[in-house]
Amino acid sequence: MSGAEPTAFLNPEFDSERLTMRPQSIDDAEALHPAYSDVAAMTWWSSAPHASIDETRIYLADGARSTDWRGWTIRAKDDGRVVGTLAACETKPRVAEIGYMVLRRDWGSGLAREGVSRLIDLLFETERYRRVWADTDPENLPSNALLTRLGFTREGHLRGEWETHIGVRDAWIWGLLREEWRR
Question: InterPro entries per the record (predicted)?
Answer without folding.
Answer: Acyl_CoA_acyltransferase (IPR016181), GNAT_dom (IPR000182), N-acetyltransferase (IPR051531)
